[in-house]
Design a protein that fits this description.
heterodimer; A: alpha+beta; Cytochrome-c3 Hydrogenase, chain B; B: 68% helix
């Protein structure tokens, strides 16, 4: 894992040779294709500058920053309870999951721990936001490959989960529900049973996707062997989440470095795939959604009784110090590094988001593929623009 | 019939007016039934519901919207070439309908080389798409145009080869004759439903429908207009009425090709096993029968379109040259041997 792999060296040499061939032997000029910032595949404002030889990509560079909103700076002038409103706009499809690592880091500095019931509810909402986020990925990747129907199925079935999130938090997308020391409210009456029936629907959605997308020969032809990321290269680029698990690295923060959430008290499994191609990434995410529904079922069954807030001072001042807490968010590892000087507001916050690293591998992986494969690979890496640019 | 007693100019006027009504109507029915309602049903939503009962007038509203839009021509575009292509494509679509028989006499021109003519004019539309892609002065449009050209050349061949099987069996190129052969024919002596060639030429039928799918640029062969890759391809710079013309020609061509497939493989305007119906009645029933058959096949085209992902360009070419063409050649060989042997 220390040196650049042979495969990367070979790919680089081949690309250089292709360059030389284009410019000298054939005396043709390559074409520079700007994909984005308004291109549909980037679902946001990512820009890919691709140099093409025919339909083959010689080199491709992602240009980020069109949606930079300066969150790291903005949170410096907000009190700790105010920050969650802002940061759940980072990955807007799995909002609740953005709040958790920040709150956990602040709790670590204040040396308080949320009561068990709050931790379990946090975990339930965390997994629900994972399901609602990745459900949309499953539909979106199929749509990027030309099949529109799965996307509508994803939108339809995601509503079941969003309704459950809304019933607890009052917001479909931006719950702003996590508090230092616990959570804002307890669960409404009858919510657990409703959630479990929603999970049954999500499982049938997963079965449907397995038939409709994974079972399609055309999807397989488009995704298998396209955009292969070897495990060592993926680790060098700092990939996380399902992207690295699809390359065969058995690493999940929920299991390996769990802080303040109830993952260690339920029975579940980390899914990995050995291929590392776009198909594997889709497959791993599909299995993760299904696993998450089982996790939510278990969490609903075993939810402990008790208070939902620890004893927290009315005006929250976080003692001076530094803390970094990362969680396994829908997109991958997300962490907050908080530096506090004992004020009402954090002195400095560094946000580590998964998508930034996941997209950084694009120049390496896009070299030598065809233009349609750019779409497949970017869709399968699964980024959210807010998560790249913050 | 009446047409025989009219002067040439009167006959021609009637035919032109009929074509001007029939082709857009067919396209409109296809758009409403399949693009608006079938896709909505498949995607578990309602589709347009506001304009007219169950959204039947939605297309009228859309056409009104497009007609009002500004006709933008890009600065760098080749002005003249940019304006022409939609109308080339539209004209090709109209030419398709010329030889399709809709009844014993209801055919604009019953050419002796009917099916040959259809295959010839259907490939003219590629000139329109290629010119559109070039003249737009847009990289995506250019890529889309080139993809369309490569695709049409690749899939023209299996289509021709699939049709040859029918031609061998019928022994004629005239579409009207092919219909009669199917109505009056027999399969190895059984003649209670005639001989619709979908039964004896099933391989040819499947290849023909795949080639039609590719020729029309529908998913899984929609790389020329792939919205997630080349953002509409050669259509990316077109707005207003020119886009409308492109859009409606696509659907009119879908109906046209389905009508041809219905004529070649499903017995055209004739009803299977219904030789008791008097010939005069077929003048009125025939058009309805062919329209129904064509719409069923259009439905199949759009059903496939909305459930499949898209192939990659090289996979598409590989499928045409390495799979469809050998299979259709084999089909021709077997058909020819059986034709001679039986």
């Amino acid at each position: 894992m220390t040196a650049i792999s042979d495969r990367q060296k070979l790919a680089y040499i081949a690309a250089q040779a292709a360059d030389a061939r284009v410019n000298v032997e054939l005396e043709t000029e390559g074409m520079i294709l700007n994909m984005g910032p308004q291109h549909p595949v980037t679902h946001g404002t990512l820009r890919i500058v691709a140099r093409l030889d025919g339909e083959q990509v010689i080199s491709a560079d992602p240009v980020m920053g069109y949606m930079h909103r300066g969150y790291e700076k903005l949170v410096e002038v907000r009190t700790y309870p105010q920050v969650t409103t802002l940061i759940n706009r980072i990955d807007w499809l799995g909002s609740f999951a953005n709040e958790v690592p920040f709150i956990l880091a602040a709790e670590q500095l204040m040396e308080i721990e949320a009561p068990p019931r709050a931790q379990w509810i946090r975990t339930i909402l965390f997994e629900l936001s994972r399901i609602s986020n990745i459900t949309l990925f499953l539909g979106d990747m199929a749509a990027q490959l030309g099949a529109l129907t799965p996307l509508f199925f994803a939108f339809r079935d995601r509503e079941f989960v969003l309704n459950q999130i809304e019933a607890v938090t009052g917001g479909r997308f931006h719950p702003n529900f996590d508090r230092i020391g616990g959570i804002k409210d307890d669960l409404p009456k009858g919510w657990l049973a409703e959630t479990k029936s929603a999970m049954v629907k999500m499982r049938s959605f997963c079965d449907e996707m397995e038939l409709l997308v994974l079972g399609s020969e055309i999807f397989e032809a488009r995704a298998r062997g396209v955009g292969v990321i070897p495990a060592d290269v993926g680790l060098q680029y700092g990939l996380s989440g399902a992207n690295i698990r699809a390359s065969g690295v058995d690493w999940d923060i929920r299991r390996d470095n769990n802080i303040g959430l109830a993952y260690d008290q339920i029975d579940w499994k980390v899914w990995t795939h050995t291929d590392g191609d776009s198909f594997a990434r889709f497959w791993v995410r599909l299995q993760e959604v299904r696993e998450a529904t089982h996790m939510v079922d278990q969490l609903c069954d075993g939810l402990p009784k008790g208070p939902i807030m620890a004893k927290v001072p009315r005006i929250i001042k976080v003692p001076a110090g530094e803390a970094y807490v990362a969680t396994e968010n829908p997109l991958g590892e997300m962490g907050y590094y908080i530096v506090s000087k004992g004020d009402l507001t954090p002195f400095r916050v560094r946000i580590r988001t998964a998508s930034f690293n996941n997209v950084s591998i694009a120049p390496w992986i896009l070299r030598g593929v065809y233009v349609p494969d750019i779409v497949t690979i970017l869709a399968s890496l699964y980024f959210i623009l807010g998560d790249i640019d913050r | 019939m009446i047409l025989g007693q009219l002067a040439f100019w009167q006959e021609t006027t009637i035919k032109v007016l009929l074509a001007a009504i029939v082709v857009p109507t067919g396209a409109a029915i296809a758009v409403y039934l399949f693009l608006f309602k079938l896709i909505s049903f498949m995607q578990s939503r309602l589709g347009p519901m506001e304009a007219g009962p169950h959204g039947t007038l939605q297309l009228v509203a859309e056409v009104g919207k497009w007609l009002q839009k500004e006709d933008i021509i890009p600065d760098k575009a080749d002005k003249f070439l940019f304006k022409v292509p939609p109308f080339i494509v539209l004209a090709t679509t109209f030419l398709l309908f010329v030889v399709i028989p809709a009844g014993p006499n209801a055919v604009v021109s019953s050419l002796p080389v009917g099916i040959f003519y259809v295959l010839a004019v259907s490939s003219i539309s590629v000139i329109g798409t290629l010119v559109a892609g070039w003249a737009s002065a847009n990289k995506y449009a250019f890529m889309g145009g080139l993809r369309a050209a490569g695709q049409l050349i690749a899939y023209e061949l299996p289509m021709v080869l699939a049709v040859i099987g029918v031609v061998i069996q019928a022994g004629t190129l005239n579409l009207q004759e092919i219909v009669y052969q199917q109505t009056n024919g027999s399969i190895f002596g059984f003649d209670f439903i005639g001989n619709p060639y979908i039964l004896t030429q099933f391989v040819g039928f499947v290849i023909f429908m795949i080639a039609v799918q590719a020729e029309l640029g529908q998913t899984p062969f929609d790389m020329p207009v792939a919205e997630s890759e080349v953002i509409g391809g050669y259509m990316v710079e077109y707005t207003g009425i020119r886009f409308l013309v492109f859009f409606l020609s696509e659907f009119a061509a879908a109906v046209g090709f389905s009508a041809i497939a219905a004529t070649l493989f499903l017995g055209g305007w004739s009803l299977p096993g219904a030789w008791d119906i008097p010939r005069t009645a077929m003048h009125f029933i025939g058009p309805i029968v062919i329209l129904t058959k064509a719409m069923v096949l259009t439905g199949v085209i759009f059903w496939v379109r909305f459930s499949m992902p898209r192939l990659r360009e090289d996979q598409l070419q590989r499928m045409a040259w390495k799979f469809l063409i050998p299979v259709s050649l084999l089909n021709i060989t077997i058909t020819a041997i059986l034709k001679v042997a039986l």
